[in-house]
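Data deposition worksheet. Section B asks for the primary sequence of the deposited chain exactly as it was used as input, without tags or linkers unless they were present during the calculation. Section C holds the resulting structure in token form. Section D is free text for depositor observations; keep each observation to a single sentence. Incomplete worksheets are returned to the depositor.
Section A, Depositor: J.P.
Section B:
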Amino acid sequence: MKSQDVKQIKESVREHYADLVKTDESCCSSLTCCPDTKTNNPAEKNGYTDAQISSIPADATEHSFGCGNPLEYVDVQEGDVVVDLGSGAGIDVLLASRLVGESGSAIGIDMTPEMIEKAQRNAEEAGAENVDFRLGEIESMPVESESVDWIISNCVICLSPDKDKVFEEAYRVLKPGGKLVVSDMVANNMPEWARAAVSVWVSCISGALPEDQYLDSIRHAGFENVQVLSKSAYAKMRQVEVASIKVAAVKPA
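Section C:
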């Protein structure tokens, strides 16, 4: 992909999510990762429990733009360091901060200043002192090498134009034995016109890789025990098959 195209995609994604914060709109459309459920609460749609939703500020759950609940599949311990890629309004960081306790920390990385500001306000409201929201890109994380126990992400890596670099960075910052758990979008039979459409890219569709290619990218970064924990089919656009997958992988000890 040309550097000009990469720059355009990143800027379009940044503007799109900044607008969602300003307008309080949903990211859902007929082609996005939003499941068909009776509730209007985004967090509830994506599988967060009532206990999780009620434990953090409503602003964080109402501005949840994910495609699942990655924390459903983690075994975070007190004292752990958790990094959330594309942390948005802070839902997963705030929930992780409760799991790691005072001796641990939860770090959120997001490239949209408006999201960082919203997440910081939500952290203040929640009284969470063991969180740190950092402005940056997930292809070049502002995190020290081998300093993290867990990396989580929720419907964000699909937005990156360089997923190989994202997984290489995840591998770099994880400690030996550290784990990657993500909820993300995959898509088979995506036509070239759709991949070139920025408007479809920001809806988590155009940038979604075929499942096999997505898993191979994780393996090529050095991860082992790469496995799909669950899969949910979503929108279909002609012959295109779109699904949300929850994936786990381990950095060798």
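Section D:
The beta strands are 81-85, 105-110, 131-135, 148-154, 174-188, 224-237, 240-250.
The domain at 3-250 is CATH 3.40.50.150 (Rossmann fold).
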